[in-house]
Amino acid sequence: MAPIGVLTALDQARTQYYHFKAIVIAGMGLFTDSYDLFCIAPVMKIVGRVYYSDGGARPGVTPPAVVSATVGVALLGAVIGNVVFGALGDRVGRRRVYGACLLLMVCSSVGSGFSVCRTRRCALASLCFFRFLLGVGVGGDYPLSATIMSEFANRRTRGAFIAAVFSMQGFGILASSAVTMAVAAAFDHYTGYPAPLDTPECADLAWRIILMAGAVPAALTYYWRMSMPETARYTALVERDVVKATNDIGRVLADLDLGAVAEEEVAAALSRPPPPPRPSYGLLSRRFVRQHGRDLFACAAAWFLLDIPYYSSTLFQSQIYRPLFPAPGLINAFQEAFNVAKFQAVIAVASTIPGYFVAVLLIDRVGRRRLQMAGFLLMAVFLFALAGPYDGYWRDHGAHAGYIVLYSLTFFSANLGPNTTTFILPAELFPARFRSTCHGLSGAAGKLGALVGSIGFLWASQQKDGAAAGHLPGIGMMYALFVLGGICLLGLALTYVFTPETMMRSLEENESDRAQTQVGDGGSDTEAAKSPASMASSHLSMSPILPARVSV
User: Nearest-5° angle of CA 321, CA 331, CA 193?
Assistant: First the structure.
């Protein structure tokens, strides 16, 4: 069968203004995700002063269990959001649920600051509830943003475009730090620079403003999201309306010569009867497991393994910045939050954002697989460099420049490699009718790893004989860092064995290879493709969710 012209045109399209507009639109969910993740650390400093001050000689501190709860509920919500919205993206279309995700994020960000009362129990319960909803929205945005960007992009720069969407996380961290510093400085000045143990009543308003400010950039892009057309690949391959796909993409991408393509598609559709339904298979079928199970395992397992050390390293920041700033008993609530946010901004500018930029530059030159392996290896090296001399040297020399450099390089390596590639690969390896679902399952596995890393690390890093107040004894920071380095080496081995390369290949070509592999193994495959062109046509088989139909 002839190739679908609009998909060929998309693969060969030059980079245009709409591609960059789509990066911003799709990146706002990732922006909100990182804003929420990184603003919670300074927010918890203020919350501790407001709700846990006993009037004694020491400032109030949020208990570890409460910190774990506020982090954990958001990650748990992200697990659910990845699975639910990922499936909905394949069932009813990417565009139809895309706006709903953003609206949920905006409303829950605002709700995080508007608790129904001001008592400690009620305020924190309300905060956890809305952070859970925020996690659902953020989790749902992962598969939709990656899938939409992959289906709009051309095959030459598809990796860079998806990586650019993911790099919005770095700017979310920077925005979180900037907003926190601005709010803390303003309240500190307005209240006349209160004494360390004097926490003004208005501090209860400061942390709410910080949380609610994350909704503003996302809300500004809501109109753009709602005006986006459905992706041509979903319309043509899942809804089986090639003509509508051609017309939709022609409205946003110029210089594709789609007029002739549309005429050819209409003529071809009118000149032949509707094709008979082809045998289809579902997500839980044996055929899916044979054809795509290995790729799904590779994507989900790598993301799970990555997020354990990545989120643990985020929490490890408290061990880094503590020697660099005055003790909490010497500064007030606003100054403490300001210092935490300032350190986060320095790490973002020095390592996180540069890592994303290098990934954008290299992803379509080096390849996803090599970059992921290199990133895991470098993370392991730097974590081992932190772990080896930790008890003998680093613990007492936390302000040493080498200590901070090694920590920054860990973040740089993660964002250069697996933190970016695990977001890209699930958006490229699976058929159009499974793409969003499989990306959601992979992302959910990653957030489960984040839960393990963020909550488990709080326990594991505590010393056996000297755990901090509110913590259970753990294995110690040195051994915890060794475990994280070992997990990175496991991610390297898994990538080497299971992860395929997708660089410079069309999405239909990637699927074609999976189908041909099954045929070569002797499986029956009436839908197998012999080429990328025929594979594009084979996508017109009956969806496991939608009824077969052809529109002209």
Answer: 130
Confirm if 65 and 470 have CB atoms less than 8 A apart.
yes
User: For the stretch 335-373, what's the b/e string if a residue is b when 16 or more beta carbons lie within 10 angstroms of its beta carbon?
Assistant: bbbbbbbbbbbebbebbbbbbbbbbbebbbeebbbbbbb
Radius of gyration of the chain, Cα coordinates, nearest whole angstrom: 25
Residue 295 lies in a domain: yes
User: The domain that contains 309 carries what CATH number?
Assistant: 1.20.1250.20
Closest Cα to residue 131, out of 180, 76, 177?
A: 76
Q: Is residue 371 part of a domain?
A: yes
Tell me the C-alpha distance between 440 and 139, whole Å: 8
Q: Is the distance from CB of 80 to CB of 131 less than 8 angstroms?
A: no
Distances (CA, A) of 101 to 81, 95, 140, 165, 331: 9, 10, 6, 16, 40
Q: Is 283 helix (H, G, I), strand (E, B) or coil?
A: coil
The token duo for 309 is 């050390």
Question: What amino acid occupies position 301?
Answer: A
Separation CA 223–CA 173 (nearest Å): 24
The per-residue pLDDT string of the chain (552 residues; one tens digit each, 9 = 90 and over) reads 345 777 888 888 888 888 888 899 889 889 988 898 889 989 999 999 999 987 777 888 888 888 888 989 999 999 999 999 999 999 999 988 988 998 999 999 999 988 777 788 999 999 999 999 999 999 999 999 999 999 988 888 999 999 999 999 999 999 999 999 999 999 999 999 999 989 999 999 999 999 999 899 888 888 888 888 889 899 988 988 888 888 888 887 766 655 545 555 555 554 555 555 555 788 889 999 999 999 999 999 999 999 999 988 876 676 677 778 888 889 999 999 999 999 999 999 999 999 999 999 999 999 999 999 999 999 999 999 988 887 777 666 666 788 888 989 999 999 999 999 999 999 999 999 999 999 999 999 999 999 998 888 777 777 666 555 555 667 777 888 899 999 999 999 999 999 999 998 888 876 665 555 544 444 444 343 334 444 444 443 333 333 333 333
Residue 453 maps to a domain: yes
Question: pTM of the predicted model, to two decimals?
Answer: 0.87
Give which of 298, 46, 283 is closest to 180, Cα–Cα.
Answer: 46
* Nearest Cα residue to 317 out of 354, 362, 350, 282: 350
Q: Could you tell me which residues come within 8 angstroms of residue 64 by beta carbon, excluding any fewer than 6 positions away? A: 458, 468, 470, 471
| C-alpha–C-alpha distance, residues 426 and 440, integer Å | 9
Report how many domains make up the chain. 1
d(CA 266, CA 261): 9
Distance CA 219, CA 227 (A): 14
Domain span at 83: 5-270+290-509
Q: Indicate whether 531 belongs to any domain.
A: no
The overall longest dimension of the chain from CA atoms, in Å, is 85
CA angle at 39 for the pair 74 and 19, rounded to the nearest 5°: 80
Residue 4's contacts (CB-CB under 8 Å, 6 or more residues apart) are 236, 237, 242, 265, 536, 537
- If you ran DSSP here, which 8-state letter would residue 472 be given? -
